[in-house]
Amino acid sequence: MNFWKRHANPISGWSRIFTAPIIFLIIWFHLWFLLIPLVIWVIINPIIFPEAKNFDSWASKSVLGERYWTKHFKFDLNLGLNILSGTFFVPSLFYTYFNDFWPAIFYTTLSFLFKIWFCDRMAYLYEKQESEKMIRNNDK
């Protein structure tokens, strides 16, 4: 759980979300040498921040909801949102590479919206699990 508590630090969550625009800038301007530090950042990001002091922020709830979802995987709306995000991510990379502005913006926006929607669903899932846990504890 230590990994997830560190990743649930809001700074970790938000900084990973804002990594996406940097990816597209690197690809747009063909600055390939910058991909190495970016990949390193994506890998170490969840472990370099301290554990979250609390899990009240949306980013923290999103990360912990994703933890729960991956442990109790289902074919559901959340999976669909993740698939849609990935599906639109591929053409966004293609159009960004070829500097085709409007299609790149279109597909990048769709990919980002589906990813944020997925994160919001994960935050909702976390809140739902926490409220159910509280109800079970009160029934004892």
Short characterization:
With 140 residues, this protein is an all-alpha fold. It has one domain (2-139).
What does this structure look like?
It is a single chain. This protein has 140 residues and is mostly helical. It has one domain (2-139). It is 80% helix and 0% strand. The protein contains 7 helices and no strands. It has helices spanning 2-7, 10-17, 19-28, 35-48, 58-71, 77-97, 101-139. Helix 2 packs across helix 5 and helix 6 (77-97) packs antiparallel against helix 7 (101-139). The longest helix is centred in the C-terminal third of the chain and has 39 residues, at 101-139. The mean pLDDT is 94.
The tally of beta strands, per DSSP, is 0
Give the count of helical stretches. 7
| Average pLDDT figure | 94
Portion of residues in beta strands equals: under 5%
For this entry, give a set of tags:
single chain, 140 residues, mainly alpha, 7 helices, 80% helix, 0% strand
